[in-house]
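Interim report, section 4.2 (structural modelling).
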Amino acid sequence: MELVDALLSGNNNWRETLSSMPVPLSVSSDPISMSCLESLIQDGRISREQGILLFENPSLSSVTALADMVKRSRYSNLVFFNENLHVNTTNICVLACRFCAFRKGPRHPEAYALGVDEYIDRIRPMSTSIDEVHTVGGLHPTWDVDDYCRLFTACKSEFPDIHIKALTAVEIKHLSQRSSISVEDTLSRLLDAGLDSLPGGGAEILVDNIRDRICMGKESSDEYLEIHSIAHNLGMPTNCTMLFGTIESIHDRVTHLLRIRNQQDITGGFQCFVPYPFLPDKTRLPEAQLATGSEVIRVISVSRLMLDNIPHIKAYRMNIGDKLASLALTCGADDIDGTVGHEEIMHVAGSSTRLDTSSDQLAMLVESTGSLPIKRDSKYSVFTPYETNSVSQSIPLPQIGAE
Ligand code: SF4
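Predicted structure of the assembly:
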């Protein structure tokens, strides 16, 4: 049981475990991957130069195999998921990011803004089968912090056990400006009203000259990190993301990963990193490069290798689909997005991931990769091995260092 507990909390001795694991031929035959393995084992880190080489390495199989080794050194064959529901508050937004298919102007026939009762009504039918509501939306021109405090207070009063993960950094900035109070006061008031954690959305690429071209007017990369650091200092965990496949270079991706890693060294509150590619439907970014499936997998693998101080790397199946997400679980990801139930932002941009996946089906998807599904809470502090009626009986219990 001690072994399982260590794995559930991420095995603090993962570098030592890594050093004793058998090295697959694809890794041992690749000098770049071997040099990265040495760096990780020796308590070093993947440098900027190594990160670039990992992105450029023609041997994708060595990069994914190394990332899988690191994932297994921390969690063996465990894969985490939660039972959640996405509810978007409004698609009305004062900005017009070029990659965004979700936002609408206030007079658009499909524009909407949920009232408190409508928000609660969206959650109620799922309230006994979810642990978390995930809520993000556009930057509504008239809403301020009081509007969201009312929403979260009502939600906590109706569903006290549901974790509220809501509001991206740019929404926090917008509410702070609309309310003429500091970001810290904004977050403190939302925390008091029931907000439990922040999602990571809106990081895009943390390189300002790229942001200026794809999401002009959004928070700067410094502001994104500052807002998350304030949340961390208030004791509020957050996630972080990366949107790739727009116009960024490999160097920009590595800069993004390094900035996230540096911030985590200082404030330590990022729970999970969620990389996802740009989806182009109904957007205004014709010059986007778009990411291939193998690029998506490579980004997830490199993220696992470079972000040694962020515990969880998520396969965001709402964006990359269930097939690629299941592959990602063997290439460095240890977490897969939950039951979700309803999702607009990725689906309006072209995602066709099913929204009616049950916990059982999700667990079976995890099992299909040879992994053991573990249901988790939103703060990664309560874990429950999930039993399905499929192949779980034949999956061996976790063994540190097992291939
Ligand atoms: S990405 Fe967010 S901030 Fe940008 S236009 Fe869309 S809803 Fe608005």
